[in-house]
Structure formats: structure tokens, C-alpha cells
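[Q] Does anyone have a clean C-alpha cell version of this?
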Amino acid sequence: MTVEQDDHYLEATKDHGAILARLARVFEANPDLRRDLLQDMHVALWRSLARFDHRCALSTWVYRVGYNVAASHAARERRIQPGIALDENLPAASVAAAIEVSDGLERLYEIVRQLEPPDRQIMLMYLEGADARLIAEEVNLQSGAVATRIHRFKAALTQKFQEPADVQRP
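[A] Here you go.
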């Protein structure tokens, strides 16, 4: 534990802590499990900053750590309840969560939660403002393929938002 590590953590959470909160919201619908996931992300971030060497932007580092913790959480949840999709084994959002965010934002998170991990990562990075080139480097695809996936998702998203919320669910 170093002062530099603590300083990096404070800077990272001040400037980029919202990334972790959004990742937790996308990966976990249950508010109690979401809080646990967010706490795990913060612990992992603090620990990882001892190895942070500035070869990438701090925001990229925060995103990668958060995404890896969230992906591990999702995989662990699937192993606990095999054969059940992640979003199907979770209770509906509580009244408090519904008050916390607008219906549109909650629907967006719900839709992104249903994506397969590679597409979920692409969309999360896109929603965080990353361009196709940066996303392509992160997910090891060509930027044209990333742009195509984003375009397709946006078209599907537009269609889903035009449908009533209760019709979207299979």
C-alpha cells in the first residue's frame, strides 16, 4: 500500500468512478448484488493501481478492471445457476431502482444486459464515448466490424424502444 496507489485510486474514482457504476448496472439487475459487485470493482481497482504504469489512459485502466470483475461475476452467477440466462434469474428492479433511473435508461441497461459478452463490451465502450478504433483495439476486431455491430445494435435498439416494454420480453 503506497501513497501513490491511494492517490491514483482517489483520482480514478473521482474522474471515472461513474464507469464502474454503469458497468455494475449493466451486468447486475439485482440491487443488492449490484452493490456487492460495485464494491468488488472498487477493491480490484485499488489493488490493480499498484501495477498501473501509465501505458494506457487511466479511464481505460478503470474500464478494463471493472469490466473484468463484472465479467467474472456474470460467469460465477451462471455457474451457480447453470442453464439459466443471467437476466432471467434476477428479480425485477425494485421500486427504489425504478425511482433512481428513468424507464428509458433502465430499458437500455436491460437490453445491453441481454447481449453476449463481446457485443456487451462493445456497446458499453460505445456508451462510454469510445470510438470504433479504440473499441476495436480492446476487443481485437477491425474498426469496420465494430462500427457495423454498433450500427446494428442501434437499429435494433430503435426498434425495441418503439415497442411497448412488455412486448420486448420473449
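[Q] Thanks! Anything notable?
[A] The longest helix spans residues 3-27.
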